[in-house]
Structures are given as C-alpha cells and as structure tokens.
Amino acid sequence: MKITSGETPMNTLTTFEKRLWLVSLLVVGVSSVLGGVAALNLAVSLIGVTALIFVAKGHVLGQLLTIVFGLIYGYISYQCAYYGEMITYMGMTVPMAAVAAVAWLKNPYEQGKQEVKVAPFYKKDWALLVALTAVVTFGFYFILAYFQTASLPLSTLSITTSFSASYLTYRRSPYYALAYALNDVVLIGLWVAATWEEPSYFTMVMCFVMFFLNDLYGYYNWRRMERRQGL
Fold first, then answer.
1. What's the CA angle centered on 48, arms 118 and 176, to 5 degrees?
2. Are 143 and 162 in contact (CB under 8 A)?
3. Closest-CA residue to 89 (of 140, 145, 50)
4. Which of 4, 172, 189, 230 is within CB 3.0–4.6 Å of 119 for a Cys-Cys bond?
C-alpha cells in the first residue's frame, strides 16, 4: 500500500470524519477536566479515538495507533486490577493489530491508495469465528478467575467481544466494527464501576462512549467501501 505523493492520512478524511474526530477529542478532553485530569488516561483516550477514525477509513495508520493505544490501555487496566483487559489488549489486541497492519498493507484496494480492500466473510468463516471465540473465552475465564480479576463476568465478556473484533479486523470484514461496538458497551460498564472508586476514570467512560459512536460510523463506512469496491 503506497502513499501517493502529497497525500497525508489527514487529507484522506472527509469533512464529516474530521468533525467526528474533533468532537471525539473535545468530549474526551472535557470529560478529563470534569473527572479530574489524569494525563495518562487522557493521552490514551485521545490516541484511541484517533485510531478509530482511521480504522473506519480502512487506513493502516489506525492499526498502528491501535498498537500504541493497547499498550498504554493495558497498563492502566493493570492499575485497576482489570487483568482481563490487560491480558486482552497486551496479549491479543496488540499482536492482532500488528498482524492486521501487515495484512492491510498487503491488500490495498488499488495500487497507490491508502484504503484497504474489503474481504468477503462466508458461512464457514463465521463457524470458525464462533469456535475460536468459544475456546478463547472458556480458557481466559479460568485465567481471569485465578488472578481474581475485578468484575469477572464483564471482563470475560470483554474477552469474547475483543477477540471477535480483532479477528474480524484481521479478516478485513465490515463486521469488525459491530463487534467492537459491543465491546465498547461492555467497557463502558467496566469503567463506570471503576469511576465510583476513582473519578479520574470518568475519562475512560467517555472514551468508550465515543469509541461506540466511531465504531458505528466505521461499520457504515466499511459497508459503503464494500459497495464501492464491487463486493
């Protein structure tokens, strides 16, 4: 996937996408002030919403930023004893984002363009996804229970939705965004619980609220990409 001369990632965004990105940054910034500024929480939230707008474009920069987000978010999760989140992002999301970045670079829609080629997802692919997700969820439940993970049911559900989303992202399917939207709902619940103990985590709640909106747009845009690419 080559970048054409003079074309930067920001230049690929439409007016609506730039506005969505700026609103996301503003909401996260304001929530940080309201909840008590925590620099690391704010930084990871800003990186996260920026990653999502480029993932929604099918731009590989989104995957690279996801790697950075996952590493920082994993550390924050460790501080809250959300070991499921730490293990999920550092041990699964980050490696899968790296693999997805390579896959996206190898599969551009058109030579010289920054848009990834959308791939079809067949019934046998859904069956494999369900089987893999069940195995991963089952295994991680006992790992999380062993480490006495906070909010074990929600943390386990986060494993399920995160793995599904990561796999679908790697497979270049528009349904990645719906899986991530479900994961966002789970994470909103997790961080609401944490905010009761530490108000500065309110930033993380609003971060995943904006993630949810961005992922819904991601699904819409990927389906539009799918039609434009003739799939």
1. 30
2. no
3. 140
4. 172
> Where are the chain's structural domains?
9-228
Q: Is 42 exposed, middle or buried (0-12, 13-18, 19+ CB in 10 A)?
A: buried
The percent of residues above 70 in pLDDT, for the chain, comes to 94
186-211 pLDDT tens trace: 989 888 888 888 787 787 888 889 99
**SS (HEC) of 17-63:** HHHHHHHHHHHHHHHHHHHCCCHHHHHHHHHHHHHHHHHHCCCCHHH
What would the pLDDT profile of 158-192 be if each residue is shown by its tens digit? Answer: 889 989 999 999 999 999 999 999 999 998 988 88
Residue 52: count of CB within 10 angstroms of its CB: 28
Joined tokens for residue 11 = 């230049």
Q: Which pair of tokens denotes residue 2?
A: 């080559």
